[in-house]
Structure formats: structure tokens, C-alpha cells
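Appendix C reproduces, verbatim, an entry submitted by the partner laboratory led by Prof. M.T., so that reviewers can inspect both the input and the predicted structure.
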Amino acid sequence: MNEIIQIKSITEANKLFGVEPPKHPLVTIMWAKDMPDFSSYFGIKYNTDLFSVSLKDGIQGRLGYGRNNYDFEEGTMVFSKPNQVLSIEEKTIAEDAKGWVLIFHPDLIRKSELGRTISSYSFFDYNVHEALHLSEDERATLTDLVKKIETEINQNIDKHSQKLIISTIELMLDYCNRFYDRQFYVRSNLLKDHVSEFESFLKDYFSSEKPSDLGLPTVKYCGEQLNMSSNYLSDLLKKETGKSAKDHIYTFVVNRAKNKLLGTTASVSEIAYDLGFEYPQHFSKLFKKQTGMSPAKYRIQN
């Protein structure tokens, strides 16, 4: 089925999930145990103008994200932002399900500090299979925050309501950052494998004709080839090595350029084009930034 449902408001989101109309126009919380069966929506893609943070606890099923779909796992969190296409392939909710979905409209945070910093929470750009896996205590911490937001939503809205709701959402996202750091640390051996895999990918890429045909590889391209999002790739490399994916690419390119400058008679322009630069001056600028000297000066002094 190719239909894509557009969800532009909190009211439309509540209606889609079959729960009561929202008590706040810009934010809603849905509890898994309250969601009726909506199998008629299986396989239908939906695109929202909203942010969502969801905990899969007591829910079994598959979630479509882009062109792929992934099994839900107990105690996992998935984040989405406006203009991401999702779909629900199948779903079963246990009677004692503790999962929830927090959905908020960008207008809620637009004039706040969170509105200016939300792009720094890179997990909103992770793929579903890069979900956050929580311990029981971590689930409890975030669920308590969700309940605080729900309390604010359910009582009479006053001049403090929006500030308290936004600050609690921000606190929740900060906790998620902490929990992701823990996940990266716990999975350090797996991350080391990712680092080796990324380095092997760069070696193979620059040993082929791809730089001449495709140019310098972008972080997005690298992530796609390694089956992960660009943000997740960059974040895991940062946690393991202290350098982002872009830093790794630039370091690799400059080291390869050094070998060509000292081991061949190719001109600086020829080396630049061979490495995938469209303009030699861009190569020279990067090289000087990385080494403190121009390619020509490096060749002479070494």
C-alpha cells in the first residue's frame, strides 16, 4: 500500500492512535495499554510534522522506518522528528504494557532554549535499529518524567505550564543522552569492530575508482554503506576515538595525500583530483589546515 498519511497536529495523532482528544494542543502522551487495535493502519506509511519519543515496553511488533523495518525489542526507545516517514507493520500490546509515546509539536518549543538546541540531540536522526536499549531503572526514570508531563497536561494550564513541560522534556532528552553514552560504553568491543570496519571501508573506497567517479565520500554515504545513520556513525566514532566520522575521513585523505606527495611525481592538482576533490584549492586548504603547511611545501620539506 503506497498511501502516506500526513499528520500535522496533535489532534490528528491522537485520532490515528485511537485515543481520546488531547488536553493540550501542542503535546500529548499516549500509554500503550490504552491504545486499541488499529490493524487497519498496518503497512500504511505516515509522515508527521511532530517530534516523538516512545518507549517500547510490553509491545511486540515491527516498525517501518524509511525503506527498512525492524522488530520491536522490550525496553527500547525510538525517536523521530518532523518529516520522517514511519509505518507500523504489525503490533501486539500486552495487557500489562508500560510503554508510552510522547508527541509534541515544534511550536511547543519554538521560542524556548530547547527549540534552539534540539538539533543537538542527534539520536532524532538515528535509524530504528540504532534504538536506545534501557535497563529497568532507566525505564523507570524516564517514565516518571513522562508522568510529570502528563500531570501538567491534565491540570489547568497556567503561565507556568509550558515552561515546566518544556523543561521536563529537555531533562528527559538529557537523560537519553546519558543512557546512549552508557550504551556506547557497554558496547565498546562492538564499537571497536565498527571503527575497524569504517577504516577498512575508507581504504577500499580510496583504492578504487570511486573518488574520481563519486568524489569525497560524505558521512551520509559512509553510513549507508555500513548500514547505519550518519549521526550514529559519527557519534559512535566520537565516543570510541574522540574524532567524528568527518574527522576520520579528512585524516585518512590527508595521510593518503602525504604518501602520494612523497611517493609519486604527480602534481598537487593531479593528487587532489585523484582523491576526489572537485577543486584543487579545496584540497590544499584542507591539507594546510591539517598539517600547517601547503602540499607543495610539505613535499619540499620532507
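The longest strand covers residues 85-93. Additional entries are available on request from the coordinating office.
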